[in-house]
Amino acid sequence: MNGFLNFVGFILLIASVFVFGLKGMAAEMGIAVAASGIFLAFANLDKFSEFKGAGFEAKLKEAVNEANATIENLKEVAKPLIKTNFFALAKAGRFSEGAFNKSHDVYDQLSELQEKIGLEGQDLENSKSSYLNIHAWDMVSELSGNIERSGNEKFSVTSREAIGTHSFEVAPDINKFNELVSGLELNEVPKRQYEALKSYYAKYKL
C-alpha cells in the first residue's frame, strides 16, 4: 500500500508543479507542493517515529494515532488537489496550442488516478465536466471557422445561432452540429478535424 500511496503523492506533486507553474500561479503551486508533501509524510509514517525541524520535535506517528488517521484522511488531502488541477487544466493553453493540437494526456492520467484512489464527489465530476465541455467548444469553434474559410460562407454565424456559444457548464449539442455539417463537402483539414471531434465525443461520452 505504501508504494501505491507514494506513487499517488508523486503524481500529485508533479501535476501540481506542471499546471500551476505553466500558468505562473506561484502561491497556488506552493500550497499544492506543501499538501503533496503532507500526503507523502502520512503515507510513510511507519518508516519513522520522530520528525525534527525548525527547532521542534513532532512525534508524527503518535500524533496520527491519536487522531485516528486513516486512508480516508489521505483521500481528503488528494481530493482538492485533483479537483484544482482539473479546473486549472480547463483553462491552460486553450488559445496558444490550437484546439485540435491539445493533448489530453494529463486529464486522462488524473482521471485514472482518481479512479484508482477511489475518490468520488459531485465537485470532482463538475471540475472534469468543465474541462471536457470547454475544450469541446474550442474544437467546434475552430472547426466552424475552417469550414467557413473553405467556402461555406457564414458557417460560424450559423453554428453559433444553432448551438450557442462557449460554456463550461454544457458541451455543444453534437447532433445539431452534425445536422449543420451534413451534406457539406469538407476539404482535408475540416474533414480531419470533424473526425477528431466525433472521436472526442465518443471517448469522453459527451
Automatic annotation (TrEMBL):
This is Uncharacterized protein. The lineage of its organism: Bacteria, Pseudomonadati, Pseudomonadota, Gammaproteobacteria, Oceanospirillales.
